[in-house]
TrEMBL record:
Residues 168-229 form the HTH crp-type domain. The keyword DNA-binding applies. This is Crp/Fnr family transcriptional regulator. The keyword Transcription regulation applies. GO terms for cellular component: cytosol. Keywords: DNA-binding, Transcription, Transcription regulation.
Length: 238
């Protein structure tokens, strides 16, 4: 069962404490762009950043929820997905340490609510900056370039996802997904369906067909790839 995300406020002081210095150093190591900011602003970031420790499966943000700040991922990963009215998920992208979430950035820039869901893939630690500080940081060219460079990278990924969903059949996409996970894929049919934005029944039917063709061997919560060249042919059929 997913744990609802709750903000944990941390105390701030007018001067940089030892804990704040450690936090700032860790942030700067993962996000080198912060070292390009004015020293006074960097000290304020160390003071104001709220450290959040979340378990696996925690909902970091959800659709129609207001955005409360700009997150830096220190450890772990966040899986961002779009949900349909029927409860199906279409994975959009992952955010790991050193990266940030463009949906959060767009919500802050547009003063809008979230239009997707973010869930931790494992134990995850975030440093959350308040909206007001994010707005001030955007006034610095280095940080502004960092944010919009992420927009550019993510948009390219999302356009590729749109192309995959719109122009490739599900069997092609499933074959490509299996080929990209090694010889033995440790995942349930539901997890594979979630990654493809499909439903378990359709993925199970396709996997059964792959197995009958000798392309894969199905086991408990795993799929063993027996014929990679055969799967590549399925993936490349136009």
């Amino acid at each position: 069962m997913k744990t609802k995300f709750q903000w944990r406020l941390t105390s701030a002081s007018s001067t940089l404490s030892e804990a704040a210095e450690t936090k700032t150093a860790r942030l700067a190591a993962l996000y080198p762009v912060l070292a390009k900011l004015p020293a006074a602003l960097l000290r304020r970031i160390g003071d104001a950043a709220q450290t959040l420790s979340l378990p696996a499966g925690a909902t970091v943000f959800d659709e129609r929820q207001p955005c409360r700040g700009f997150p830096f991922v220190l450890d772990g990963a966040i899986r961002v997905a779009k949900l349909s009215a029927g409860g199906r998920e279409l994975p959009l992208y992952r955010v790991v340490a050193g990266e940030s979430c463009i949906i959060t950035s767009s919500c802050l820039l547009g003063h809008a609510d979230y239009n997707a869901r973010g869930v931790t893939e494992g134990p995850t630690t975030l440093a959350l900056l308040p909206r007001e500080l994010f707005d001030e940081m955007l006034g610095e060219p280095a940080f502004r370039d960092f944010v919009f460079a992420l927009f550019s990278e993510r948009m390219a990924e999302l356009m590729q996802l749109v192309e995959e969903v719109a122009f490739r059949k599900l069997d092609q996409r499933l074959a490509s997904l299996l080929l990209g996970k090694g010889r033995v894929v440790h995942a349930t049919h539901q997890q594979l369906a979630d990654e493809l934005g499909s439903v378990r029944e359709m993925v199970s039917r396709l996997l059964k067909g792959f197995a009958e063709q000798g392309l894969v061997k199905l086991g408990r919560e795993q799929v063993e790839v027996l014929d990679p060249s055969g799967l590549r042919k399925v993936a490349s059929v136009t």
